[in-house]
Structure formats: C-alpha cells, structure tokens
Prior knowledge:
- This protein is α/β, with parallel strands linked by helices.
- 29% of the residues lie in helices and 26% in strands.
- The protein has helices at 19-30, 60-63, 107-114, 124-127, 144-152, 175-192, 225-234, 254-260, 270-284, 297-300, 312-315, 322-329, 338-341, 364-372, 406-418, and strands at 2-11, 36-45, 49-58, 86-89, 119-122, 139-141, 156-158, 164-170, 195-202, 207-212, 218-223, 241-249, 288-293, 333-335, 354-358, 362-363, 376-379, 400-403, 433-438, 441-447.
- The strands form four sheets. Strands 1, 2, 3, 8, 9, 10, 11, 12, 13 and 16 form a ten-stranded mixed beta sheet that branches. Strands 6-5-4-15-17-18 form a six-stranded parallel beta sheet, with helices on both faces. Strands 7-14 form a two-stranded antiparallel sheet.
Amino acid sequence: MLLCEKEFDIPAVSGHQDLLRYLKTRVKMAVPDDAVPVRLVVSRTDQSWYHCETGCLTGVRQSGSPAPESIFSFTKRPLEDVGSFNAVLLVPTGIGAEIGGHAGDAAPVGRLLATVCDTVITHPNVVNASDINEIPDNALYVEGSVICRLLMGTTGLQRVRANRVLVVIDDHKNETFVNAAINSVNAARASYGLQCSRVVRLDPSVRLIAQYTSSGAAAGRVEGLESLCAVLDDLRDEYDAVAISSVIDVPHDYHREYFDKRGQMVNPWGGVEAMLTHTLSLRYDVPSAHAPMFESEEIANMDPGVVDPRMAAEAVSMTFLQCILKGLMRSPRILTAPDAIRHPSAITASNISCLVIPDGCLGLPTLAALEQGIPVIAVRENTNLMQNDLTALPWATGQLHVVENYWEAVGVIAAMRAGIAPESVRRPLTATVVEQRVRGRIDKLVEY
Length: 448
C-alpha cells in the first residue's frame, strides 16, 4: 500500500453552495479508481477554481484489506445540545501556521480556551512539543481525521480513564535511537503511569518521506504500510491507542535550515505524519500519533544554537516521543456503532458549540461546521499558507466570526456561552434594518 498526495483543480461553483457534496463528487472523479482519500485540503480558492490537495491511499484492494469509510460520509446533527459548551480547536498540520506551526506552540492557546469551555477537543499538532505535552485537564486529545468525522456526524467520542498504548518503533540500524525510544516509554511508565501493552520493533520499517505541495504545505509519501498494518491486525485486541516512532526521510540540510530560518520554513515533518495517522485512525478507529526518529548520530548531535522559542522544544529532545505517549494515554475512545454514538456519555456533533481555526483554512472540518450549523471562529493573526476567503461561503447569519487574535476568540466564546450576541459588546452598534414588504416582496429597507 502507498500513501501519497494528489493535487488537482476543481471548477468553483456559484456562491460555493452545497460545497461538501460537490467536492465529494468531484474528488471521486479526480483521483484514480483504486485511490482512497484520507484527507482533503482546499489550499486556494478563486473565482474559477478550488485547488485541492488530497492524501490518497492506493493498493488497498490488492492487499485484501477493507477500505476505510469515506471521509465524505456525513450525518446531519438533529439539534445542538446546550447542556455544556465544547469547542474544537484546530491548527492544521503542515500549513506554516504562525501559531501552532512548530513544536506545540499553540498549547497556550488551548489552555486559554479551556478556561472558558467545559471541554476543548484538539489534536496533536496543537499540544505536542517533543518531551512536553501541556494539555489541559478538560481537553480531549484526538487525531485530526477523528475531529473531521466528529464534525461530520459519523463518529462519537467517549472519555476514558486510561488507554493501553501499543508502541511501534523503527528497526533503526543505530541502537542508540532504539534505546532512547525504549527509555522514553519506561520514563512514561515510571513517572505518570502509562500502561504500555507492548513495544514492537518493526522490520521492515514503514517509510515516511517528507515532501512539499505546490502551495508550500508539508505532505509526503508513506511506503511499506503492510508491515505496520500486519502488526496492528495481529495485536488488535491488545491495545486502545497506537504510538509510532520512526525515521522520516528529509534532505540532510533541512535539519539545520529549519532552525536557521527561525520560523520562516514550514515544518517538513508534520505533514507526512498527519497523512499516516489519518490513515491508521480511519482504518482501525483507534487514537494514533507519530514521533520522528533521528536518522543518524550526526544529526542528533548537531548544535542548532539558541533557536526561535517556537522550536525550542524540538532542539532539546532526543526522541520527540514523550508528548504523544502522554497525549494517547487518555485519548478518548472512538465510537462508530450507532448504539454507541447514541449513548449518553458520548460526545457527538450535537455537543460541539464552536470550531476555532486559523483564518483561510478550508477543509472538511470547516465544511462540516458550515453544514451542521456550528459557529466558526476564524483567527486572522494566525497567518498561514492557505488562500481562501471564508467570508464568501454561504454561512447562516452570525455563524462565522472573523477575529483578530485568540484573545478576541476567547471573548467571542465567552459571549456565545452566555447567550450574548458578540457584536453587542462592541461600539458602535450597527443600525437596525427594517424591511418593508409589499405583497410578499421587499419594497425597501430602512435603517434605524
């Protein structure tokens, strides 16, 4: 099986109406018959085209494995449950986000949002910082594709006390890195009680190759998935979550260039990691996360000097593994059976109060929120590579809030939770528009 990125343009539709269903149809036409989409990003929108970047899994039929559920499956939520206020916080991986595009540097945002919400549902890219994971107690750590399915209404989440975490590590030719990974697991067991069901040294290893798309976003190729899937199939009853530590192939000079450019280079590793974990979570319905291994002692011993603060966590880690172990330890159970999704303890699309994203990000979470009637807060200050005007989408009145920064996003959340129109605490207040109708048609509008 091969996992790789496909890029193509799709004609734009007037008013971007019914966009979720339209993209489902057009993506199916654009990818090969044997390709299964595992993630979708619209990286650029103009008057004529949507430029799509889609991670696709091929070779599923030949492997004899069942294909995962379509990422476009959608179930409309019947209502919003207002018994609690639960926000989804997304900073998509690999798009060069100013906040959250490096090593867990959006974690303070997550902690801030958690103070005004009952629950924050977020993903590894927000809080993973190599040996550090400062996820709030009232946050749920789930993989990005699971958030997509949650918002699409096809998956629910259930809190757990703890997970049995299966750790799969690369069969690295240098024992130093294998030992470091095992020491990370043992440190987690000894210091915060991780339940590690097994550690498997994988040979042949799954191969991750980092690449960039035409938009400049990080993506890549994943080869040799069969050996990893064989392990996950064989041990399926022995784990609740999967942590993977393996080498990601990047040009040698990227290691220094990434630090030298002090945040101006898109992190090349995260995109292909997201492609892998999207695939595993779709296939097995378990939480998954990936940590990169150093390729050699030369790279591990490289001194980057004092680096940009957003990258500092990466400069002081040997394995980058500790953050995912801590996150997966209590990552929620993924529910797909109809009876399980209807259980009172399940968190579903009906329980989601808002989605917080960097401005310009257009993918399945944004489109799902649009269709579900979930309010979206888009943050301008979190600049990124995506070139989409979210205000052009057919939002319901008051559904989209474009704010300058995360401070303002927290204020909007607090107003929404209190049932106050956010614009009512700003000045000047906009005029009240009165429609005068004659025989059912608008005759004139008068502002007061």
